[in-house]
Write a structure and sequence with these properties.
Blueprint (H helix, E strand, L loop, with lengths): L1 H8 L1 H26 L9 H12 L1 H31 L15 H4 L1 H25 L13 H8 L3 H28 L8 H29 L3
Helix pairs in contact: 1-2, 2-4, 2-8, 2-9, 6-8, 8-9
Protein name: Succinate dehydrogenase
Organism: Pontibacter amylolyticus
InterPro entries: Cytochrome_b-558 (IPR011138), SQR/QFR_C/D (IPR034804)
Length: 226
């Protein structure tokens, strides 16, 4: 096991872990967004409440939640380790190297973007996941599920939370634009024929996913009444 430990604790190994966990988290974003789109149904929140009840009680989903948490933890930990290693390798910094000419703004600020996303994630979990799993939410009459939809409406009437949500989705878009392309490079999946498509697809994916999430709180803030 010594070779395995050395391989995945090396810089290259950690970049591979970052890439795999990052792409896995991208798949989670797709699934999560598709489920959240039920919030737009004009049914008083019934579809969203049913979806939330299913996600909270399905044993396969509950198992995948553990995998998801581990994916987040590995991704965050490796990001911290790689950032420290990069700084240690360049103690002088980029001041004299004109980094803006050789890299994108998002690639130079992945730490900042990741921190914004992490703060948002903690607030988001506190607002929705904790009440849904451990709180005393109001039940829906003549149904076996709770009314999480009402909590969503209440939360998205808070301008501070909506502002944080939208800013975080902008940060997510930039984070994904760089991370998506970087993941394929770290995994060695580059080719002069396919790399341009991967870049274009990555930008489109990042913008559409982030925009989809951002539209939800804006819709509730401006168009849905308590």
């Amino acid at each position: 096991m010594n070779w395995f430990t050395k391989t995945f604790s090396s810089t290259i190994g950690r970049k591979i872990i970052m890439s795999v966990t990052g792409l896995f988290l991208c798949s989670f974003l797709v699934v999560h967004l598709v489920g959240n789109l039920t919030l737009f149904y004009q049914d008083g929140g019934e579809a969203f409440n049913i979806y939330s009840h299913f996600m909270a009680n399905n044993p396969v989903i509950r198992t995948m939640e553990i995998v998801l948490v581990l994916g987040f933890l590995f991704h965050i930990y490796d990001a911290i380790v790689l950032t420290r290693r990069n700084k240690a390798a360049r103690p002088v910094g980029y001041a004299e190297n004109h980094p803006q000419e050789n890299s994108t703004w998002s690639s130079r600020n992945m730490g900042l973007l990741g921190t914004i996303i992490l703060v948002f994630l903690l607030v988001h979990l506190w607002n929705f996941f904790v009440p849904a799993r451990f709180g005393e939410l109001e039940g829906v009459p003549n149904a076996e599920y709770t009314n999480l939809y009402a909590e969503v409406v209440k939360a998205f009437k808070n301008p501070i939370y909506v502002g944080l949500y939208v800013i975080s989705m902008i940060a997510l878009a930039y984070h994904l634009i760089h991370g998506f392309q970087s993941a394929f490079q770290s995994l060695g999946l580059t080719h002069k024929k396919y790399t341009p498509f991967i870049k274009t697809f990555g930008v489109a994916f990042s913008v559409l996913i982030s925009l989809g999430f951002a539209l939800i709180p804006l819709y509730f803030f401006f168009f849905v009444n308590l």
